[in-house]
Write a structure and sequence with these properties.
CATH class: Alpha Beta
Order of helices and strands: EHEHEEHHHHEEEHHHEHEHHEH
Strand content: 15-25%
Radius of gyration: 23 Å
Structural class: alpha/beta
Helix content: 40-55%
CATH superfamily: P-loop containing nucleotide triphosphate hydrolases
Number of helices: 13
CATH architecture: 3-Layer(aba) Sandwich
Shape: elongated
């Protein structure tokens, strides 16, 4: 599972992770649950239906399938599976009963969403798991704890029966060694603080934390350098560029600001390392994210051993 503060690139990282885990002839499923169709946009494919579709083949073999889980469709599937309602379940959809139920019982919505993920994780065909791994683009850090803590959410809804059985089955998978929650962050104050809060919350819920993934990192050529206006003027002269006082002073001020940001980033990275989980890094891609960019991030994750984190 991949979570992170909004804007840190968690969907991008989830996609790169799915590619990495599929490399070498494996099959992975990439799942989203927030009705944003972010996966389809990343892979430049049509909007995902409530069905598993192949969306990519990693360079070294394998297959990535994707699924956009819709709470309403999951509810109808649930009614058919446990109560054999069939057409009656579809009638519930037409009269708006499904929306009503998932609105008055939001915990049930999360059980349905995570239940579909759990079904994919545990699905077996011909004695083998269908997927080597399932990657969930989970809600952001501010909501991920409640989303994953399905047992508590439905405690007041059902003491026995299929709903209770479903929530307990999901909770067992979430807290098992087969699960890891990766937290995506940036080297900025607020994302790092939310990462620390998320790691603490997940540990309290006894949900395994896999790694902290620092996104959009870039190396600084000015790190540790002593920047003076005299040296800047000489370098500008050598390049045939303007050397007036205003230009040189402005560049020197920008260099100092940049070095200050680098010092802050180093401090924040140290804070992340003290949280305990492995800290991985993904590079900043100046040309933006497309399929080739996802493969760059995939390689970076593989080089750092994300499959073992």
């Amino acid at each position: 599972m991949v979570t992170g503060k909004g804007g840190t690139g968690k969907t991008t990282v989830a996609a790169a992770l799915a590619l990495a885990l599929a490399t070498g002839g494996k099959r992975t499923l990439l799942v989203e649950v927030e009705n944003r169709q972010g996966i389809a946009q990343l892979f430049d494919v049509p909007p995902l239906p409530y069905a598993e579709r192949r969306i990519a083949v990693p360079p070294r073999g394998g297959e990535v399938r994707a699924l956009a889980v819709d709470a309403e469709e999951a509810f109808l599937e649930y009614l058919e599976l446990f109560y054999r309602l069939g057409r009656a379940g579809r009638m519930l959809k037409r009269i708006g009963a499904v929306d009503f139920v998932t609105t008055i019982a939001p915990g049930l919505r999360d059980v349905l969403l995570t239940g579909k993920v759990k079904e994919a994780v545990t699905r077996v065909e011909q004695g083998h798991r269908v997927y080597h791994a399932v990657v969930l683009d989970a809600p952001p850090t501010g909501r991920v704890g409640r989303f994953l803590n399905v047992t508590a959410e439905v405690a007041g809804l059902a003491k026995v029966g299929p709903i209770k059985h479903q929530s307990e089955g999901v909770a067992a998978v979430l807290r098992s060694p087969t699960t890891a929650v990766h937290v995506v962050t940036l080297l900025e104050e607020m994302p790092v603080q939310e990462t620390a809060d998320a790691v603490a919350e997940l540990r309290e819920l006894q949900i395994p934390v896999g790694s902290i993934i620092v996104n959009q990192t870039c190396e600084s050529v000015l790190s540790g350098a002593r920047v003076t206006q005299t040296q800047l003027r000489r370098d500008l002269e050598a390049l045939g560029l303007p050397t007036d006082r205003r230009t040189v002073a402005g560049l020197a001020a920008e260099a100092r600001d940049h070095q200050a940001r680098i010092r802050v980033q180093r401090r924040l990275r140290s804070e992340l390392e003290q949280l305990g989980p492995p800290v991985l890094e993904l590079p900043f891609l100046a040309d933006g994210i497309d399929l080739s960019g996802l493969y760059v991030l995939m390689d970076a994750l593989l080089e750092q051993g994300v499959h073992t984190a």
